[in-house]
Design goal:
There is one protein chain. By secondary structure, this protein is α+β, with helices and mostly antiparallel strands. The protein contains two helices and two strands; from the N terminus they run H-E-E-H. It has a two-stranded antiparallel sheet with strand order 1-2. The chain is globular, with a radius of gyration of 15 Å.
Length: about 100
């Protein structure tokens, strides 16, 4: 997943000059109608609607004109973030994947 300029602005962060990626392992996804488990490790769980892009095959250093050849589909997703963990990681200048990747 990549951080959008909208979510950057909502959090009061500067807009990055390069794409900023974070991981979303399959263990943090819930099928449609499934229940999101509130992780015990957080006291500040947020959610936001996102457009998910499904990459259908391995890609690396693909020319801009050919990117769509690798897109298998799209999905509406509910991105869930433990904001308190995210802020702690940011203050410590650590990756904040843990705030977005907890199992559910």
């Amino acid at each position: 997943a990549v951080v959008s300029t909208q979510s950057t602005g909502e959090l009061g962060n500067e807009i990055p000059t390069l794409p900023f990626w974070f991981i979303k392992p399959s263990t943090c996804y819930v099928e449609s109608g499934g229940e999101i488990i509130y992780p015990k490790i957080t006291n500040n769980l947020h959610h936001e609607l996102e457009l998910g892009v499904i990459i259908g095959k391995k890609m690396s250093q693909v020319a801009k004109d050919n990117v769509m050849d690798y897109v298998a589909g799209y999905s509406i997703t509910n991105d869930v973030t433990c904001r308190d963990l995210q802020e702690q990681c940011k203050k410590e200048r650590k990756p904040w994947d843990i705030s977005k990747c907890l199992d559910t």
